[in-house]
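Entry 12.
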Amino acid sequence: MAILINENTRYLIQGITGKEGLRAATGMVALGALVVAGVTPGKGGQTVAGLVGKDGREEAPIPVYETVIEALKNHPEINATSIYAPPRFVLNAAKEALTAGIPLIHIIAENVPTRDTVEILEFVAVKNELGGKQYRVIGPSSVGVMSPGKSVMGSFGGGRDELLLAPFTDGVKIGKKKGGVAVLTKSGGMSLTVANMLSQAGVALSTVVGLGGDKISCTTYADLLDSLAQDDETWAVVLIGEIGGSYEEDFAQMIKDKNFKKPVVAFISGKFAENLPTGVAFGHAGAIVSKTFGTRAGKVTALKGAGALIADNPEDIVELLQQV
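Predicted 3D structure (tokens):
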């Protein structure tokens, strides 16, 4: 089944005619994702042509519209969107998509103003309280989501899936009859690195989610726990965490509160950084350590207390999955 996206997901790309939006569209179509429309203000009426699908054939041109409402009027099947807009325009783009009724939104831009991210979260909360659809935003600063063999949203994989192992295929060696492993990480680079490492070892992947490295993530590890528990193609979860924030501790508490039964293997980076002064940012905006929370040791303790297995190095993840 996978979580978030599958072979039935129909995508809109906001900012499709820009350099990064066009690159994302090219990669998504190459991996079989169903990109049905794009939006770029001022370029409505144009098309994006020449994209090659998974079967090697050129796909039909993708129409470009002025607004999200116009795109949905012509393509009511759209149920997800990737936003490829500069940080200062992300808030308006996200609100436009949410107002139009698109339930799943991906934001790739980093350095989105924190106040704008909070406003997006508040807007999502209001939409969800109204009932009907359930809305979710992945990001900001998210590389995207991939369900190997099914679909991809955003820039994950860069148009190549030969490095990723889908469930129930011949190359699966570990958990062959169980489906795949879900990989959750805030780091775009680590998401593909770990996914490739697991694939090379014969561990299939049900879904890989890049949650984004900003200080505030619109979707957290804990937010996905219920979906992972219900997914019949996910038999274990691999969490790639980092110092700073409390998302990993929140996930550990949620495992206990929900009595989550599936194995969890976690790697928390930051051994070296813990020797440096508190309050220093390390790469991601969210990787800022406080005196009271956000340390690697605190995260490891919380996850162990929830029953997770801890990998001291990324390469240990495969061995721990074999044990469970």
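Annotation: The CA atoms of residues 4 and 104 lie 8 Å apart. The first helix runs from residue 19 to 30.
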